[in-house]
Amino acid sequence: MSDAVRLQQEDFSQDEEIRALQACSKRIGGIATFFGCARDFSDGREVSEIRFEAFNCMALSEMQRLRSEAIERFGLIEARIVHRLSAVKPGDAIVFIATGAEHRAPALQACQWIIDELKERVPIWKKEFTPQGETWVTPHP
Amino acid sequence: MIEVLFFGPVAECMGTGRLSVEHRPGLCLDTLREDLRARYPEAFALVSIAAIDGAHVRDAAVELADGCEVVFMSKFSGG
């Protein structure tokens, strides 16, 4: 079984991630997921490709910390976080988060919390390629 | 020596992902940042986050050890 927290080049399977999470415990009654994918339009420009750069060791350690904090803060049974670092085209997968709890409320709350915190705390930068040129993305609120 | 790393927009502005800076006793993060800001104002206008040896640092007064690795970063845009 793959690690619960990963940075990787290759694509991932949402089904496999959910199966891996569910395999941890039959006590899980609710699973929430977030799937982030590449858009073809951003800030008024058509996007043909997105590339990523990461400070890998800190990015992975922060993602692991997010998982641990989420489990404790929301009483989760398990959580998984995967972020790709390869170049992606519109529609391609970028990030996946799955949270499992006994009940739906903590799973849903934790899932949103993790992606919100990931955007603030994990050292990954995104560059969009458009007909007008390439631009590093300014974080959205 | 202190290894200073840059990524993403800061590295692009710097034209490099890495600099070596001579350590001196009592050198703190804030002083290093200001020294580099004076030399690379455009790049350091983007810097809002720092890490030492892989860990996020909020106390700019922290003293830097010889041989440590410092990273100056802009706001993240992952996810």
Describe the structure.
- The complex is a heterodimer of chains A (141) and B (79).
- By secondary structure, chain A is of the alpha+beta class.
- Chain A has 3 helices and 9 strands.
- Chain A has helices at 14-22, 56-74, 104-121; strands at residues 5-8, 30-37, 41-42, 45-46, 49-54, 78-84, 93-101, 124-130, 133-136.
- In chain A, the strands form 3 sheets. Chain A has a 4-stranded mixed β-sheet with strand order 1-6-7-2, with helices on both faces.
- Chain A is elongated and about 50 Å long.
- Chain B has a 5-stranded mixed β-sheet.
- Chain B has helices at 8-14, 29-39, 41-44; strands at residues 2-5, 18-21, 49-52, 55-57, 69-73.
- Chain B is globular, with a radius of gyration of 12 Å.
- Chain B has one domain (2-73): Roll (Ubiquitin-like (UB roll)).
- Chain A binds chain B through residues 36, 52-55, 57-59, 61-62, 83, 94-95, 115, 118-127, 136-139, and chain B through 5, 7-9, 11-12, 49, 51, 54-56, 71, 73-79.
Known CATH architecture of chain B: Roll
- The CATH class of chain B turns out to be Alpha Beta
Radius of gyration of chain B: 12 Å
Can you say what the CATH homologous superfamily of chain B is?
Beta-grasp domain
- Beta-strand portion of chain B reads 25-35%
The quaternary organization reads as: heterodimer
Characterize the largest beta sheet of chain A: strand count, sense, and whether it forms a barrel: 4 strands, mixed
Name the overall outline of chain B: globular
Q: How many strands, which pairing sense, and closed or not: the largest β-sheet of chain B? A: 5 strands, mixed
Q: State the distance separating the first and last CA atoms of chain A.
A: 35 Å
The level of helicity of chain B is 25-40%
User: Which two chains share the most extensive interface?
Assistant: A-B, 28 and 19 residues
Shape of chain A: elongated
CATH topology of chain B: Ubiquitin-like (UB roll)
Q: How many strands appear in the DSSP assignment of chain A?
A: 9
Average pLDDT number of chain A: 95
What's the domain count of chain B?
A: 1
How many helical elements of chain A? 3
Give the class of chain B from helix and strand content and strand pairing: alpha+beta
Overall pLDDT of chain B, averaged?
95
